[in-house]
Amino acid sequence: MLPVRDVIRSLEHYRRLGFTVRPYEPAGPDGSFYGFVSSGGVELHLARTRDLDPKANTSACYIYAEDADALHGAWTASGGQTEPT
User: Fold this and answer.
1) CA 14 to CA 84: how far, in whole Å?
2) Alpha-carbon distances of 69 from 6, 65, 76, 84, rounded to whole Å
C-alpha cells in the first residue's frame, strides 16, 4: 500500500503508464481515499494521506522486471513521469 496525496490524480498517473486503475468506491466530494492499480501480475494499493511529505516518507515499493530498461522506456514513452507527483 502506497501513500498518495491525491488518489484520483495518482490513478490517472498509473493509467498513463499502462496500469488498469480503479478507485475503491466512487469519489466523494473530497475525492477518493483508496484505489487499486494493476498490470500483469502486479497490483498496488494507493491510500490517501493528505499530509504526506514525500521527502520524509519511508514507504517503498520494489517492482522486479525482466527488462527494466524496456519498462522504463515504455513508461517514458507514455508521456507521464516515471515517478508519481
Assistant:
1) 8
2) 28, 9, 10, 18
DSSP conformational letter for 66: S
Q: Give tens-digit pLDDT for 3-62.
A: 999 999 999 999 999 999 999 887 777 777 899 999 988 899 999 998 999 889 888 888
DSSP-derived secondary structure letter, 24: S
Task: Return d(Cα 73, Cα 78) in angstroms, integer.
Answer: 9
Cross-strand bridge partners of residue 23: 35
Q: Output the nine-digit C-alpha cell for 26.
A: 466512487
Q: Domains in the chain, please, with CATH?
A: 2-77 (3.10.180.10)
